[in-house]
Design goal:
Length: 431
């Protein structure tokens, strides 16, 4: 029943935020100051608004914090909470860690992502910096600064060119900024990590602290798109997300959704109060209704069987040509009928020998004359060249030998004719 209600609400939201422009075009009306919608597997941008404008990302910054942690520590490594939690600003969101608490990295990241614990971010940063520098006495502020340097270096490698992080939590700092596009790139990179995906998509988690003080703490994800308790917000295709909220940043949301083969990432920054859920849902619905992921060619798929000249009769006469790589792409549903495939061969005539994996051509996919992709075509199997003896007795040699016989016969006839004339001249001499 809740899924039906969610579907109806999503449809209503789509109608509200999506305005028809023509029979084949639409216009999204969003109030968020900066927005981007991308498809995860291809990285293609489906919609953007001020995507490169510098914005305050708030706690969406923690996506990169989690990624760096997973790249430096094993998920089951145990981390002890230190006095770095005392440095967390009083007005910051917290998961409730106490000095001496012991958590695995996975549990710590759950605290970082679900209740958006700034104390969790401080613990992660302190542990990693102490481990990488070998300095166990480094203070929390210095650890945060060094971790921020790690974040900026990693962001740069990802391709986030307009990002500068000043701390691991996203707590406001005038020098802590990013863009919708950069956050989408960072999220797309993080989603390659299976453990990150698992934590990112949790709706709630109960932490059982066994050491003093013993207690159970329930952490709930602040991304209401995946919380079924909120039937008016819950979105059935949502798979994860990270919220952010400060006075300077406004309400922020990085969210993901999957339907069939289509995986989406939305980033909304400085959204008017309580509108991030509806706007993210509208973006998802727009993509699901107007785009699709299509597999045009599978790796190793048979494309054609072509003749090969001068092949050995001991083997096959036809060469099976297959795709070296697979090709899937994001295409507007209305454009699918106009996608064309053309085969371009490297040679007009393929001549033996042919090796396994030898490139023989390419499949070129175009849309209205624009090349979408080219897939190399290779030989599935080898074909041996015929030997001289095989050539002599082959059907292909008939034209050769026929021509040779005709040539020899012609030469013999000419010689015979010349000799005969000479004899005739000799017989007419009189003494």
């Amino acid at each position: 029943m809740k899924q039906k209600i969610s579907f109806v609400l999503a449809t209503i939201l789509m109608l509200f935020y999506i305005t028809p422009v023509s029979a084949e075009e639409i216009s999204l009306t969003l109030e968020s100051e900066a927005v981007i919608l991308i498809e995860e597997s291809t990285g293609k941008v489906l919609y953007e608004k001020n995507a490169d404008q510098r914005m305050y990302p708030a706690s969406t910054s923690k996506i990169l914090t989690a990624l760096i942690a997973l790249e430096n520590i094993k998920p089951d490594d145990v981390i002890t909470v230190g006095n770095e939690v005392n440095s967390v600003p009083l007005d910051a969101s917290k998961a409730g860690h106490v000095i001496g608490d012991q958590l695995t990295l996975e549990q710590l990241l759950t605290a970082l992502m679900l209740p958006s614990g700034n104390d969790s971010a401080y613990v992660v940063a302190s542990h990693i910096v102490k481990q990488t520098t070998g300095n166990s006495n480094i203070d929390a502020i210095s650890a945060n600064n060094q971790f921020a340097t790690m974040m900026n270096e990693r962001a740069s490698k990802i391709g986030a060119k307009n990002t500068n992080f000043a701390n691991p939590s996203g707590y406001h700092d005038d020098n802590h900024y990013s863009t919708a596009r950069d956050l989408a790139l960072i999220t797309r990179e993080a989603l390659k990590n299976e453990k990150f995906v698992e934590v990112f998509g949790q709706s709630e988690y109960t932490m059982n602290y066994e050491a003093t003080p013993q207690r159970n703490v329930l952490w709930r994800n602040r991304n209401l798109l995946i919380d079924k308790r909120y039937s008016d917000i819950f979105y059935q295709y949502a798979t994860g997300g990270k919220t952010g909220n400060t006075d300077e940043a406004g309400e922020c949301l990085v969210a993901t959704a999957t339907k069939d083969e289509l995986k989406l990432i939305t980033v909304l920054l400085k959204t008017p109060k309580d509108k991030r859920w509806a706007e993210s849902t509208a973006l998802f619905e727009y993509a699901f209704n107007f785009y699709s992921i299509n597999q045009f060619l599978a790796e190793g798929e048979l494309v054609d069987t072509i003749p090969v000249d001068r092949h050995s009769p001991k083997g096959p006469s036809g060469l099976e040509v297959v795709a070296k790589d697979g090709y899937s792409d994001l295409v507007k549903i209305k454009d699918l009928p106009r996608v064309e495939k053309n085969i371009v061969w490297n040679e007009t005539l393929i001549v033996a020998p042919v090796e396994v994996g030898q490139a023989v051509g390419k499949a070129v996919y175009t849309l209205d004359g624009t090349v979408l992709n080219e897939v190399e075509l290779v030989a599935k199997h080898a074909i041996e060249k015929q030997s001289i003896i095989e050539f002599v007795f082959s059907v292909n040699s008939i034209p050769y030998w026929g021509g040779t016989i005709v040539l020899v016969a012609g030469i013999s006839f000419v010689i015979h004719f010349i000799n005969k004339r000479k004899r005739n001249r000799g017989s007419r001499i009189k003494f």
